[in-house]
Amino acid sequence: MEEMKRFLAHHLPVTTGLVMVVLILMHEDLQVTRSALLQMQSSCRREVAASQSSSSRESSGASNDGFFAHHLESNKLSDTAVAKIPITTKEKLPQELPVFHIVMSKTNNGVKDPLSIMNMRCIESVFYFHPTVTLLVHTNNETGLLEGLKHPKLKALVERGYDLQVNFYRPQDILQRTIEAPGSQIDPHAAAEFSSRIDPALRHEKYWYANEANLVRLCILYLQGGIYLDSDVVLINDRLATDPRIDQAMGRHRDGSKYHNAAMKFTQPGNRFLAAVINNMIEHYDGSKWGNNGPKAFGRTAKEHPQWVCPEDKYDYVFNPLSEDQPEMNTKKKGKKQKHRTICYLTPFPNDTVAPFSYKDWDAVCFEHHSPRYKEIRHKLDHSFLVHFNNKKTEEQMSKKAYKKGSLCDHVLSSYCVLCED
């Protein structure tokens, strides 16, 4: 009980609305887990943020159209774009959430602080919606501020009780582990030959930092499973992790031509489609073409193995796997339940759910209030899981020009944080 009291004192803000909650939780007969307390903390934080956001808008004269309140009220999340089924935080959460992964492969290049505001908001947004989840930051910088959690902001998160871990990697090592994994479907000879070219040849390529991150994220998900996020992605709700129907999943453009690998969920390790993507990336590697070894590798693999890509209306199904290789999908049609079998290793969902806007919309997102494009993007956020800021295109603009208060950019970067420091 003393440990519980210390935890409450450290993690729950002392506000009028929480005093009675704290007193009730301290009752000797009530068993309260750390998970439940952190979930309560997250819920309370959202309510406080909603109140503060409302007050801020009134004082700044911002448009009071209900948009910001809509996104901050945990019990009023709109229907998902992929399932059209209400998902709210009132529903029972899975007992164990997937591990989150972030890969930071670009070296510091002399910059003292390797974490931009987008990087920090990415990390914080994970803990904002999932206070008890494990977040692994994979980095190739063994001596930087990320090593040993030396970075003051990362250290602050750990001191608050969040399970944040930083792992150092070498791409050759993680590729070798992927080859040697039990039942691995990676071509060992092609992978070994590719690994031998990393030093010194490939490492000096212009886009190697991105190609390395593409390879490492695939290997990590194949080896460990979980949810991968680019370091410039900010979660805006909890659906990606908590909806059990969303798995083996990533965004895809509606015409089916392009995949979006900035956010992916593959809960179980050993996914056959991921193995095929790794093999495809190695076979068709071209370090001179941006995207060739990332999103395009998914597209090439999908064309090569179309039978492994789940139907677009997969979320209308009740998915009950019978075995690893032969899952069963039950569909409801005209009141009758029909059954058919399919091999399904990748579920694409509409790209707007993970990329509601592109870097071309930067002005409308960060520096405008009332343009037609602003309103269109704002509507898309109702059906999104997250926002991808695309650091490659926007990082320089962000460093030169501050985003406008009251903009969508301001909302996303200031609403889903736990440290909330600039």
From TrEMBL:
It is found in: Golgi apparatus membrane. Residues 268-304, 337-420 form the Alpha 1,4-glycosyltransferase domain. One of its GO terms (molecular function) is hexosyltransferase activity. It comes from the Eukaryota. GO terms for biological process: glycosphingolipid biosynthetic process. The keyword Glycosyltransferase applies. GO terms for cellular component: Golgi membrane. Its main location: Golgi. InterPro entries: A1-4-GlycosylTfrase_dom, Glycosyltransf_32, GlycoTrfase_DXD_sugar-bd_CS, Nucleotide-diphossugar_trans. Keywords: Glycosyltransferase, Golgi apparatus, Membrane, Transferase, Transmembrane, Transmembrane helix. It is a single-pass type II membrane protein. Pfam families: Gb3_synth, Gly_transf_sug. The chain crosses the membrane at residues 7-26. Belongs to the glycosyltransferase 32 family. This is Alpha 1,4-glycosyltransferase conserved region. The lineage of its organism: Eukaryota, Sar, Stramenopiles, Ochrophyta, Bacillariophyta.
